[in-house]
Design brief:
Shape: globular
Largest sheet: 2 strands, parallel
Number of domains: 3
Pfam families: HHO5_N (PF26575), Myb_DNA-binding (PF00249)
Domain HTH myb-type: 221-281
Biased composition (Basic and acidic residues): 118-129, 214-223
Order of helices and strands: HHHHEHHHHHHHHHHEHHEEHH
Strand order of the largest sheet: 1-2
GO molecular function: DNA binding; DNA-binding transcription factor activity
InterPro entries: HHO5-like (IPR044787), HHO5-like_N (IPR058673), Homeodomain-like_sf (IPR009057), Myb_dom (IPR017930), Myb_dom_plants (IPR006447), SANT/Myb (IPR001005)
Helix content: 40-55%
CATH class of the largest domain: Mainly Alpha
DNA sequence: GTAGCAATAT
DNA sequence: GATATTGCTA
């Protein structure tokens, strides 16, 4: 949800906000089939707020909010997009992820520490509050953008995406960061809103690049800088896919509209869809036979849990009935949408990828128990981060 | 203008 | 090798 809405909450007061939510729900109820998830989410939001109201009324803060933030934020309202810069320059998180010895400036470290504190142990409530707001965005912006604000962002980029509140964070040119970073970064990392950061980015862009050769500059201007799909964004993508009946029937434009992400282009969605299709089709098409006979039963990722396709497939067969399958996958991972005609299976290789990325997440949670065998993760081990959207319906 | 695929860049 | 962007075609 946009921060403006959050502000509204405070202005309105709780009960007013609940009222507003209920009105919203009424509107949504007009289109129960089109907006099943929204209905669900708004309902949950109302409930949560009511609980807050009755319970910890004195502290209307982000504790309760954070619990439902993902639900409420992920589908309500247009989203200001923010891309994660995966370039090396970019983020302290890169260091965090790869434990790189590549020391950036000290400022990065100090900043990093600060964020890490708020992220890892949610003890500091003040931090928590601010992080909550940050965590709701879809495009992962450069977490270090406060200082990186002075770094290069192509002016062209800003012109292209010049919509208000739609400033993307382009990736830096010189990335040494693996794409996997995106997966990590996408887990609700703290980041700035795109607008402020991006707007301040403009200043030094040209000057810093002028030092370099002009050839490269031209190239940069010609070619759009790479952007990364955050987890939240991908989640939206999947949700949109579901509502549209799967990757096969959905079109980029439809998806884009459903995702309701400000600044997201058709091309980007198209590209993502293409990749998604590649990922989801390849296993089933090429290895359909072998997949069946494989001793290792293919698993699919549902939420943070690997489940058997049968279990998985049973859930999402209805696309618009409101029985939404909660497909949540780390960014870069293409959890098959259940509405695909063949329940997509994951080959060993594919699955290994899933596994690895999950392991990485575990690693960051100091929870390396996913070694080897495929098993469903105990919800307890990964409850807080990105499984929040799964809490409403069990499978 | 849009979607899909392939080539190319990162 | 994976992923995002761009170009081409229908």
């Amino acid at each position: 949800m946009s921060s403006t809405l959050t502000m509204q909450r405070f202005k309105m007061g709780f009960s007013d906000y609940i009222q507003a939510l209920e009105q919203e729900r009424l509107k949504i109820q007009v289109f129960p089939k089109e907006l099943p998830l929204s209905l669900e989410l708004v309902t949950q939001a109302i409930e949560t707020c009511r609980q807050q109201l009755s319970g910890t009324t004195t502290e209307y803060n982000l504790n309760g909010q954070s619990e439902c933030s993902e639900q409420t934020t992920s589908t309500e309202g247009p989203v200001l997009e923010e891309f994660i810069p995966i370039k090396k320059r970019a983020s302290p998180y890169c260091e965090q992820v790869y434990d790189d010895d590549d020391e950036e400036e000290d400022e990065h470290h100090s900043h990093h520490k600060q964020q890490k504190i708020s992220m890892d142990d949610n003890k500091n409530s003040d931090k928590k509050k601010s992080d909550w707001l940050r965590s709701v965005q879809l495009w992962n912006s450069d977490p270090s953008s406060e200082e990186d604000a002075t770094r290069k962002v192509s002016v062209l980029e800003l012109k292209r995406n010049g919509s208000v509140g739609g400033a993307f964070h382009p990736f830096q040119k010189d990335d040494r960061v693996n794409n996997k970073t995106c997966e990590f970064l996408s887990k609700g990392q703290p980041s700035l809103t795109g607008v402020a950061a991006a707007s301040s980015n403009v200043a030094t862009t040209v000057t810093s690049n002028n030092a370099g050769n002009t050839k490269r500059e031209d190239k940069e201007e010609k070619r759009k800088q790479r952007r990364c799909w955050s987890q939240e964004l991908h989640k939206r993508f999947l949700q949109a896919l579901q509502q549209l009946g799967g990757a096969d029937s959905a079109t980029p434009k439809q998806i884009r509209e459903l995702m309701n992400v400000d600044g997201l282009t058709n091309d980007e969605v198209k590209s993502h869809l293409q990749k998604y299709r590649l990922h989801t089709r390849r296993p089933s098409s090429t290895n359909n036979e072998s997949a069946k006979s494989q001793t290792a039963t293919p698993f699919v990722l549902v939420g943070n849990i690997f489940v058997q396709p049968t279990e998985y497939g049973g859930v999402g067969s209805s696309t618009t009935s409101g029985e939404m399958t909660k497909v949540v996958a780390p960014s870069g991972i293409y959890a098959p949408v259940a509405t695909h005609p063949p329940v997509t299976t994951i080959k060993k290789l594919e699955f290994k990828k899933f596994e690895n990325s999950i392991s990485e997440e575990r690693g960051n949670n100091n929870n390396n128990n996913s070694e080897g065998a495929v098993h469903s993760n105990s919800p307890a081990s990964s409850s807080s981060t990105h499984t929040t959207t799964n809490n409403s319906r069990g499978f």
